[in-house]
Amino acid sequence: MEASRVLNSLISGTVGPVMILVTIIIMIWYAGAVYLNSSFLIDRYEKNNIEWTFSQLASDSWSMERPVLPSPHQIAKELKKTIWDKKITSPRSLVFHSRVTLSSAMVGFVMGAFLGIVLSIGIVYVSALDRTLMPWIIASQTIPILAIAPMIVVVLGSMGVIGLIPKAIISTYLCFFPVVVGMVKGLRSPNIILVDLMRSYSGSKAQVFWKLRLPASLPYLFASLKVAIALSVVGAIVAELPAGAQGGLGARLLSGSYYGQTSLIWAALITASVISATLVTIVGRMERFVNNRMGLQI
Amino acid sequence: MNDSSSIKSADSSIIDISNLCLTFETQTEPVHALSDINMKVNSGDFVSLIGPSGCGKTTLLRVIADLEKPTSGTISVEGKSPNQARLDRSYGYVFQTPALLPWRNIEANIHLPLEMSGYSKDEQKSLSNQYLSLVGLSGFEKKYPWQLSGGMQQRVSIARALSFDPDMLLMDEPFGALDEITRDRLNEELLRLWEQTQKTVVFVTHSIPEAVFLSNKIIVMSARPGKIIDVIETNFPKDRTFDIRESPEFLEVSQLVREGLKEGHSDGS
Amino acid sequence: MNFLAIIRSRPLSGLLCLIFSIASFISLQLNEINDYALNPFIVIIIAIVSVIFFIIRQQGLFLLSICFVALFSGAWSVLNLIHSFDKGVVMGLDAWFLVSALWFLTWNNLVQLSALKTKNKLIELSLTIIIPVLFGAWIFFLWEVITIGMSVHQVLLPSPSLIWQVFDGAGATLFADFYQTFVRSAIPGFIMGSGAGFLVAIAADKIPFLRRGLIPIGNFFSCIPIIGMAPIMIMWFGFDWQSKAAVVAIMTFFPMMVNTLSGLNETDRIDRDLLHTYASSYWRELFSLRLPNAMPFILNALKINTTLAMIGAIVSEFFGTPIVGMGFRISAEVGRMNIDMVWATIAIAALTGSMFYGVFALLERKLTFWHPSMRKS
After folding, report:
1. Contact C236 A18 (CB under 8 A)
2. What's the pLDDT at C247?
């Protein structure tokens, strides 16, 4: 009876299933580490004529220097080493690299959001802009924009613009599309009755904007900002890939891939994921707050 | 035909409910949706369930259709459990909204239950033609639901419920969302269909004229807890038209129903 | 005062066009020694057209087509002029004035076309195509004029005509890149990722335990930079297309899973009740009701995935690849400062990306014609 209650609480709700699935993933991870690292280890055993058992193989493959797949605790160790043990200013510290990536992502996000909002207001109020720009903005979403990231970095670099700005420009570029599309939808979302109501009060264009269209667009804006902020991190990381980037999680990923330092790659990847997920959560919280204020239940 | 119908009416009830209760468990307190319901529906009857909103008339219909499970009491449909009756496809259910699948055209929507009962393609085709013409929608086979008016959509939904020739038609405020003019026309059509097909109909409504005009038995319900407070039988000719709405009998029955509802209301509050 | 009022009520772009074309004409007369000069005749035509446009407020289709002819001849003469330049020559003031005049004429044209009200569906449709195309053509024209007219160094920004020449010379290379990146990496990854996402969603829908666990995990993965998996995948699957397909598969998996799951949950209570009264089985309900209902969500995921597949395939090539592929081409040619080749590759990527997307947009229109968002008009 008691056991079935425990089982029930494990599989109902969300926390239980998530925990169980994550545990399963970690178990598969350890098994995968043995599987992927085994061929190298077995080769070595046979070369050195060492008798080996399965348990030895497992423990060796979970503590290799340069494993094909590092085990979770090795990544945790690497994370601890590069986040706590190194000085923040050291180029081997992940905090240092995160700061580099985060700052360009944030600058890009703010610029992209601003550009997107301004452009969407233009599109909503000037019909010529709507008909000329909007099709291009929608079409451009189908284009792999990230492909031009290295070119922007290198070309701007050849003009003497280096450091944060080229990376921020790529993030800006990625961010502004979803913001324009969402914001245009939002500014147009008030239904015709409300617009007519404002007209019956003979409200000016500015009044209709501030009192009706802008508030109505906020839920849409925050939904797009959530997409945009995740994109801004991706943009900053990809912008760090072209050779010569000094810092940032992207550069870290690249150097890990050059030197075969898998745990370094995983540590950088996990840091990037945590940053990204945190940012999305923050915007999500803001979105929920705004939606509550607007009387929407999401 | 005549023979079978006389046997049917001689037959005992098609729906038999006794001491039925249904309680919904909610977070705050249990809601007694139905309490101590006793009713019988005879084969070939047109029974209306009428009452204020929240009186459980829809819930009662859903219990008959095995869409809700009663908490206590017994219910038999065609002498079987509601679940078995559902598995045997004994009834066609017409919802408040047409509930037509937008990606299927009118014809394919009517084919839906037929596909599930394993009719052949040719049978499906001929049955959909037959029932579409019965509801006066021949020629609309290839249209999509959203290209039709609300009244037409509800007629398709009735044709769909009839298409596999069930013994019963369960209707949950089918005309509630329509304007009064359309509703009147569909009422007359429904009466004609009932007469032609000899089906047993259980009909949920909150309109007194609709209930009185359509049914030969009106079950008046009251809210909180939902219970039956009166059963009124009417005796209008089967081929009645809207003219009877002016007749003194009609007004008399309407008055009875209204008083029943009022009584239930004062009881409840 | 009256004169001012008249000016106010007229389109400003017509006036600006007139002023700039007159300025162009004057500067043309002043620089007689210049070898590279515009045809003054064209300048006069543009000036006359702008006067017409300034005076006539309501411009019909006839006037607008005259405007088109003037625009094309103006643009043509400017293009002829800059293509006759020797290296290092900078375009003169007269031509810049003319380009400005042409811009205002175009803008006037765009505004007028946008304001055009017509009941004819064919005209309406062609307008929705012509207006953005006109604008796009202008961007290319301006790009060409600025890069050649100001003799911008081609490392910075090559002119469209220069990029076009790359297709002639390096067509085979570009095709090989396209084949490696799109056909061998993006498409298999797209199929694997979307397919797996779909199947997992179906399984999760059947098993509530899986669903409750997978939705938060899927949401988490949808906001992390999965592209960072590329170096790991390269380590596992080698440098060739397999590792890129794996990245694409991971990237496309989660949008498909999350969208399909929410699509499957989207059915109306009443529709489920209807199927319940028919005593329908789980699979019957899935195929007759819930999957068709989830179709808009699934196609939306497929559309998102087309873009993700292109990005995944190209960007993971930045981490290492055999010497072929669009991503490799971009990063390698950027290093050698062959920017025209980079632009040509980007043009192909853009074209492939939008066609890939277009296929699914058409499919969406075909399959979910019944959805309210598609029904309009």
Report:
1. no
2. 92
Task: Judge whether C44 and C78 are in contact, CB under 8 Å.
Answer: no
- CB-facing half-sphere around the CA of A186: CA atoms within 13 A: 23
CB atoms inside a 10 Å sphere around CB C10: 14
pLDDT at residue number B1: 36
- For residue C372, count other CB atoms closer than 10 A to its CB: 10
ipTM of this complex = 0.80
Closest CA to C92 of C145, C153, C36: C36
The encoded tokens of residue C348 equal 């192909």
Q: Model confidence over C100-112: pLDDT tens digits?
A: 888 888 887 887 7
For residues A177 and A141, the answer to whether their CB atoms sit within 8 Å is: yes
- The per-residue pLDDT for B267 is 52
Find the CB nearest B101 among C280, C284, C292. Answer: C292
Chain B and chain C touch, per 3+ beta carbon pairs within 8 A: yes
Structure confidence at residue C134 (pLDDT): 85
| Window A:202-261, CB contacts with C under 8 Å | 226, 230, 233-234, 237-238, 241-243, 249-250, 253-254, 256-257, 260
Q: Is B84 on the interface with C (CB under 8 A)?
A: no
Please give the distance of CA C126 from its chain centroid, rounded to a whole number. 18
Q: What is the DSSP letter of B243?
A: G
Q: Chain B 27-46, CB below 8 Å of chain C: which residues?
A: none
The nearest alpha carbon in chain B to C277 belongs to B86
Predicted local confidence at residue C265, as pLDDT:
86
More reliable by pLDDT, B119 or B2: B119
pLDDT tens by residue, C30-65? 765 556 666 777 778 888 877 777 777 666 777 778
A21 to A18, A33, A268, C209, C216: CA distances (angstroms): 5, 18, 23, 10, 11
- CB-CB contact of B227 with B192 (8 Å): no
The whole-model pTM stands at 0.81
What's the rounded Cα separation, in Å, for the pair A249 and B127?
67
Which of chain C's residues have a Cβ under 8 Å away from the Cβ of A128?
A: 107, 110-111, 114-115
Interface residue A54 vs chain C (CB under 8 A): no
| DSSP secondary structure of B193-221 | HHHHH--EEEEEES-HHHHHHH-SEEEEE
Chains that touch A (3 or more CB pairs under 8 A): C
Report the gap between the CA of C205 and the closest CA in chain B (Å).
21
- In this structure, what are the phi and psi dihedrals at residue A158, rounded to the nearest 5 degrees? -70, -20
Q: Which of C274, C280, C365, C373 to mutate to test the interface with B (most CBs of B within 10 A)?
A: C274
**Residue carrying the six token digits 């937008």:** B102
Could you tell me the two tokens for A174?
Answer: 């990625």
What does pLDDT average to in each consecutive run of 10 residues of chain A (298 residues)?
69 78 85 78 76 74 76 80 73 81 92 93 84 80 78 79 82 88 87 77 80 86 89 87 72 81 84 90 89 68
Which residues of chain C make contact with B103, given a CB cutoff of 8 A? 292, 295, 368-370
pLDDT at B7 over 50: no
* 3-class secondary structure, B95: coil
Residue closest to C276 by CA, chosen among C284, B176, C265, C293: C284
Q: Which of B264-268, C134-138, C233-237 shows the lowest mean pLDDT across its residues?
A: B264-268
φ, ψ at A48 (rounded to 5°): -95, 10
Is C346's CB within 8 Å of A147's CB?
Answer: yes
Query: Is residue B201 within 8 Å of residue B46, measured between CB atoms?
Result: yes
Q: Do C277 and B112 touch (CB under 8 A)?
A: no
**Contact of B40 with B95, CB cutoff 8 Å:** no
DSSP string for residues in C69-120: HHHHHHHHHHHHHHHTPPTT----HHHHHHHHHHHHHHHHHHHHHHH-----
